[in-house]
Amino acid sequence: MNKNVNEWIESHEKELIHAVKELCSIPSVNAPAKDNMPFGENAYKALSKALEMAESYGFSTKNYDNYVGALDFDESLPHTLDILGHADVVPAGEGWTVTEPFKIIEKDGRLYGRGTSDDKGPLLSAIFALRAIKETNTPLNKGVRIIVGSDEETESLDIAHYFKIEKPAPMTFSPDANFPLINIEKGQFRGTLSKPRTKSADLPRLISLDAGIALNAVPQKAVMKFEGLDMDSSKKAIAEISKKCGVEVTVTGEQELTVIGESAHASTPEKGRNAGLAALELVTRLPLADSELISDIRIILTLFPYGITDGSGIGIKMSDKESHDLTCTLDIFHIDENNMEFSFDARTPVSATKDNCEDEARKAAESSGFAFETPGIIPPHVVPGDSEFVRTLLSSYEDVTGLKGECMALGGGTYVHYIENGVAFGAVLPGIDTHMHGADEFIDISNLITAEKVYAEAILRICG
């Protein structure tokens, strides 16, 4: 390990913290395009700020039509390593207790706020690692490029635009997951069940229900509106669901109930408390008039039972040794006077196919009376765990941290999903849940510094 580089990293801790606070304060959630800002004004501001920081550190930068930015260590060197991060974030959501989502604070050795761990903090760790090499005059003989995206959390149209212009490097890693290293990203299977609603004038009745703000996150909040419901006679059902599901149910308006659960990334739905499913369970226990809607809600709960995240309800439970269990979570809920619609997100192991996954889910939905739509399965991404590139990254991790380096499978997807010889490498250390995509997202400052050292060591071994 390079002593000068590590000393530089340690001496610039406060500057890294300041940079994370500054970049994370921009609420860079995807929004409609406007004025040459393809993902909205705040995504543009975050991308611009990241490039502005890089330029102030002495790097040459490029802006690809406000889709993606890039910074190079030395453009004259042969293009060898790409590091892909992103400056966009998921919506803030609700339930924050430590700070406001975009008011970044330092507390108990942690930085709290949206984007601190996904992915602005890790992105800046990578930038500062390259800066440490540059400012200590440590030579490289191969080129390193850090790519900053602004649409990773939605459709990744940014990186698709970039690769229409540039070719990927022979080796790529993304600081957008967990250490030690992700060499398998599961496939993704999403679907929507829908059905027209038969109107009923019988009271009391459910008028509407909405939950979920992103398909890749367990919904934290659900809002239900009723007609003719006696709130006093509902207290027993509310208490039962609150206890069973671990959620908070409150009266938030005349004839309105709100359920607050706990969000989680769709790749780890077992870590959340699904407010949408809890709300459906509550509806079935409230003193409402019998109706086709109530029957349909009961069916949805058999297809997606509360607390069951293995896809067994819709017939797609599966597992394999290489990539482990399928996960499935119902994340978008909408019921109004005329229609009902529910969308799920499943992360599929290598063994998933159209026959055993897509066709089975369709059969379960349609036999239950719902229309079913899906874009199909996105295939998994696999990089051999014994490749020289992977072995180099893992040895860098082991030597810096003293921890065992090993390959893992990930339910979440990153930019490298479609890039040959691309892996996810950190930045979150093992055993830490940083509440990515949830309330009170954080990153340990010591984690950022460790990641910085790991990235610097990996860059030196690959390009030095």
Task: Give an account of the 3D structure.
The protein has 464 residues and is α+β, with helices and mostly antiparallel strands. Helix content is 31%, strand content 26%. Strand 13 (248-253) and strand 14 form a beta hairpin. The termini are close together. The model has no long low-confidence stretch (mean pLDDT 96).
Task: Write a concise keyword list for the protein shown above.
464 residues, alpha+beta, six-stranded mixed beta sheet, 11 helices, 31% helix
What is the compact description of this entry?
Helices cover 31% and strands 26% of the residues.
N- to C-terminal distance = 12 Å
Oligomer: single chain
Question: Major sheet: order of its strands?
Answer: 13-14-12-11-17-18-10-19
Question: How many individual β-strands?
Answer: 24
Q: Which blocks of ≥5 consecutive residues have pLDDT under 50? A: none
Secondary structural class = alpha+beta
Report mean pLDDT, rounded to a whole number: 96
Helix content: 25-40%
Shape, please? elongated
What's the tally of helices? 11
Strand content: 25-35%
Based on CA atoms alone, the radius of gyration comes out at 23 Å
Task: Please outline the major beta sheet.
Answer: 8 strands, antiparallel
Could you outline the blueprint of secondary structure elements for this entry?
Layout: H1 3-11, H2 13-24, H3 41-56, E1 60-64, E2 68-72, E3 79-86, E4 105-107, E5 110-112, H4 120-135, E6 143-149, H5 157-165, E7 171-174, E8 177-178, E9 181-185, E10 187-196, E11 205-211, E12 221-227, H6 235-245, E13 248-253, E14 256-260, H7 275-285, H8 292-303, E15 319-320, E16 324-325, E17 327-335, E18 339-348, H9 354-367, E19 371-378, E20 381-382, H10 388-401, E21 407-410, E22 422-424, E23 427-428, E24 442-444, H11 445-463
Parallel strand pairs: 3-6, 3-7, 7-22, 8-23, 9-21
Antiparallel strand pairs: 1-2, 2-6, 4-5, 5-24, 9-20, 10-18, 10-19, 11-12, 11-17, 12-14, 13-14, 15-16, 17-18
Helix pairs in contact: 1-4, 1-11, 2-4, 4-11, 6-7, 7-8, 10-11
